Amino acid sequence: MTQDVIFQTLGTLSGQSIGMVTLNIEKALNALTLDMVAAMQAQLTKWQQDDSIACVVLDGAGEKAFCAGGDVRAIYHASVANPNNITTEACEFFTQEYQLDYLLHQFGKPVLVWGDGIVMGGGLGLMAGGSHRVVTERSRIAMPEVTIGLYPDVGGSYFLNRMPGKTGLFLGLTAYNMNCADALYVGLGNHILNSDEKEPLYNAMAELAWSQDSEQNHQLLSGLLTNMSQPHLAALSVSPLQQFQAQIDLLMSGDILDVHHQLSSLNTDLDWLKRAQKTALAGSPISWHLIFAQAALGTEMSLADCFKWELGVSVNCCSMGDFCEGVRALLIDKDRQPKWLFADVDAVDANKVTQLVTSPWAEDKHPLADFT
């Protein structure tokens, strides 16, 4: 049993229990390892089938982060040692991570995610799977995969394409850090509390009249969170994403070269937009193409099919994309000077993109074939 993730149950006055999951590697901002993912999958599957568990809560240790993403170092080392080959490490990590995310989406019982502090990458995959997603004044939510030669996975193909206008494409290309107002605007958060209200929330949850009726339990928890959120919604500042939605849509309109030109020539006094512009233009040109391919999926695909598509693309990125170089520059050598495979977005070979988005498995052999 790994102590990197702690499982507890909270008793309630109703006699039902609440399953508590705490990601517990504070010094690594609770980044997900394969062991943590496997432990959570096993425990959550038990709780899903346990009639005494009415609800599940996901939380992160410490003040800084719920979860800053996946710990990809093991995948990096395996991929560097086996160039141009899909490694067991990449397959296992992404397969199990997506199985966990999908389990949360399909859980049935209420899943409350306490999205305080940093919620990035794989952390956002967990949060998006929750039915009740709480953000706070300290929430900083982003999909920064463009900086490591990946693309917003963990279900991003599903939820980014369902955001207002071109917001999803903007978030993918720029790794923009959303605040609580932004998260509520795009639907990643659905309740807002203060960071110091966690204990009062858990105390109030212990007093709810939980039953074995999941639908009723969803309504109970929604009612409690709606009441507690009310004062914060009244005082909420305007979301930059909402305020500048029209400009973002214009900036993101056209094909990939149009958008690259529009971002390159953008002249703005807005600090948050300058940061977004800088990150996008420094990102992997391959990632740009993958993010556009992802946006082109639209809203027709089921969540299950989105995860299947992503698994193929993710393992391909590790074997023949910019992933290893991005991880090296950002996390291993930390020189922040990635040498991408292509000099710019215009130079990316269309065949390379086709290779990356082509599943390495026949449909019946797909590791996620049982997703329905």
Automatic annotation (TrEMBL):
Enzyme class name: hydrolase
UniProt keyword Isomerase, yes or no: yes
UniProt KW keywords: Hydrolase, Isomerase
Gene Ontology CC terms, in alphabetical order: cytosol
Residue ranges occupied by any Enoyl-CoA hydratase/isomerase domain in the UniProt entry: 18-356
One of the record's GO molecular function terms: 3-hydroxyisobutyryl-CoA hydrolase activity
Claim: Hydrolase is one of the keywords in the record: yes
InterPro entries recorded: ClpP/crotonase-like_dom_sf (IPR029045), ECH_dom (IPR045004), HIBYL-CoA-H (IPR032259)
Catalytic activity: 3-hydroxy-2-methylpropanoyl-CoA + H2O = 3-hydroxy-2-methylpropanoate + CoA + H(+)
Pfam families: ECH_2 (PF16113)
Example GO biological process: L-valine catabolic process
Enzyme Commission number(s) of this protein: 3.1.2.4
PANTHER family per record: 3-HYDROXYISOBUTYRYL-COA HYDROLASE, MITOCHONDRIAL, 3-HYDROXYISOBUTYRYL-COA HYDROLASE-RELATED
Protein name (record): 3-hydroxyisobutyryl-CoA hydrolase
Species this chain originates from: Shewanella frigidimarina (strain NCIMB 400)
